[in-house]
Each structure stands twice: as C-alpha cells, then as structure tokens.
Design goal:
Number of domains: 2
Number of helices: 5
Helix content: 40-55%
Distance between the termini: 131 Å
CATH class of the largest domain: Alpha Beta
CATH topology of the largest domain: Alpha-Beta Plaits
Radius of gyration: 63 Å
CATH superfamily of the largest domain: Ribosomal protein S6/Translation elongation factor EF1B
Strand content: 15-25%
C-alpha cells in the first residue's frame, strides 16, 4: 500500500476546493510534515543518547575489569607469601678525614664497658654459686637393716653374743636396738637393728663379720631391709 503524499500546493491535488478548504489542507499538510520531522529528530536524539550511554557503560566496564585484574594479582601475591621486600640500600661508607680518631666509636665505648661489667658480675655470681654448692654436704644413701643372729643351742650366752656383735665397728655402721626372740625348745635368737651407709657397709660384710664368732653364732639372716 503506497503512502499518501501531500504536495506543497494543494490546489493541484484539489482544484475544486474553496480557498478556505485549500488553506486548511495546506495547514494539515504543514502539521503532518512538521510532526514527521519532529518525530525523526526525536528518534535521532534518543539514539545518540543511547550510544553515548553505551560508550560510558563500556568505559565503566573496562575500568572495573582492570581493577578486578589488579586485585587478583595482589591477592595472588599475598597468597604466595607476599612480594619480595626491596633490598635495603647499602649503608653509606664512612668518610675518612685522616687520622685514627675518626675510627673511634665514642658512643659504643659505653656499651662495651657495660657489657664487660655485666659479664664480670655474672662470672662472680656463678663462682659464688659453685663454691656454695661444693660446701653443701652430699646426700648420703643409707639403709636400715634388721638381723636375726641364731645361737647353737639354749646354753649359748646371749649377752656375750650381743656384746660380740656390737663390737663390730666400721665407718658407716651404727648399731641400734636389739631384743631376744624365742625360736623354740628354749632357744632364743638375737634380733638387732643397725643403720648403714650403702657405699660403705653391706649385708655381706655384716654376715661375714658376725659369723666369725663361730663359738656363739650358728647363722645370720636378714630379717628386714629398708632404704632411708
């Protein structure tokens, strides 16, 4: 279907129309043409605005993409232990103006003297502790022993037996209390206690020394043994 066109001169299209009708037709033609032009101009403006907005949006997206990439690099660096620290600049070389006085550290001498004094005090305290420790008596291991000394028969002089046993004397041996304990058939045994230093006296020594009184002693047994 072809579009209806309105010529600029309505008289050629409508020759029988009155003047007023022709003016009205011209008015209508002018309105239509003006409206069509305004509509086209409005569409162009909207398209231009959309294109501008699209460009701005693309710029924003590019900026965000670049920022995200930068953040990802920083995160990866932190996950790997962080970026290597830049090397410290080398210390400036000391300027020598001549003479040995320039090499003397006036501020460090006090520190060296303080360190020497602290070391001296430390050594003195350590020496005093060692001397005190050496004077302290060492702990001596001791044991409490109870011996059963048995006679040959009921006619054995038990008082003489005890006297002989107590006559055994040596360093690290201290005799204690004693008593006579009935065994049977009128026979009694001598039960005697003593305290010994473990490094100096043992049960074997006591048994050997007591059994030397063979006229009085039949046997020796250890009834009790306890560390002190």
């Amino acid at each position: 279907m072809s579009a209806i066109s309105f010529p600029n001169e309505p008289r050629a299209q409508f020759p029988n129309a009155s003047r007023d009708e022709q003016e009205y037709i011209k008015y209508l033609c002018g309105v239509k043409l003006t409206d069509a032009g305004s509509s086209a101009s409005g569409d162009d403006a909207r398209i231009a605005k959309l294109e501008a907005d699209n460009k701005n949006l693309l710029k924003t997206v590019d900026c965000l993409t670049s920022r995200i990439a930068e953040l990802e690099k920083k995160f990866a660096a932190l996950s790997a232990g962080g970026p290597a620290k830049p090397a410290a600049p080398p210390a400036a070389a000391k300027q020598k103006n001549g003479g040995d006085d320039d090499d003397v550290d006036l501020f460090g001498s006090d520190d060296e003297e303080a360190d020497a004094e602290a070391e001296r005090i430390k050594q003195e305290r350590l020496q005093a502790y060692q001397e005190k420790k050496s004077k302290k008596p060492a702990l001596v291991a001791k044991s409490s022993i109870v011996l059963d000394v048995k006679p040959w028969d009921d006619e054995t002089d038990m008082a003489e037996m005890e006297r002989c046993v107590r006559s055994i004397a040596t360093d690290g041996l201290l005799w204690g209390a004693s008593k006579l304990v009935p065994v049977g058939y009128g026979i009694k045994k001598l039960q005697i206690g003593c305290v010994v230093e473990d490094d100096k006296v043992g049960t074997d020594f006591l048994e050997e020394e007591i059994t030397k009184f063979e006229d009085l002693v039949q046997s020796v047994d250890v009834a009790a043994f306890q560390k002190i």
